[in-house]
Amino acid sequence: MDGRDNLDTRIKDLMREGPLVALYLKVGIIVLQETTAKMGNDELRAMFGGLIHPDKLRGNIQVVYNRLNDFPDDHQPE
To answer: Which residues of 29-68 are buried (b: 16+ CB within 10 A; e: fewer)?
Structure first.
């Protein structure tokens, strides 16, 4: 596997293609946050194959959302 096959590298490469990529990423995080907030724990376990606990998943998404919006990591939506 070369460096191009790494997801982080592909995302960084995409970010260089223009400002809309960042907007699409931000909108994607918002939609993911809203969707996972509405889903039950069993649904999330099934969606992610039980690889991550639903509360941890929601928390990780919240941290990414907060960082994209320049909020403190412990900021919670109103």
So the answer is: beeebeebeebeeeebbeeeeeeeebeebbeebbebbbee
**10 to each of 16, 17, 27, how far by Cα in Å?**
10, 11, 18
CA–CA gap between residue 51 and residue 72 (Å, rounded): 27
Residue in the block written with tokens 């320049």: 70
Question: 33 near 65, Cβ under 8 Å?
Answer: yes
Q: CB burial class (10 A; 0-12, 13-18, 19+) of residue 25?
A: middle
| Closest CA relative to residue 28, chosen from 4, 60, 59, 64 | 64
Q: What is the mean pLDDT of residues 34-46?
A: 95
pTM: 0.78
Say which DSSP state 4 is in. Answer: G
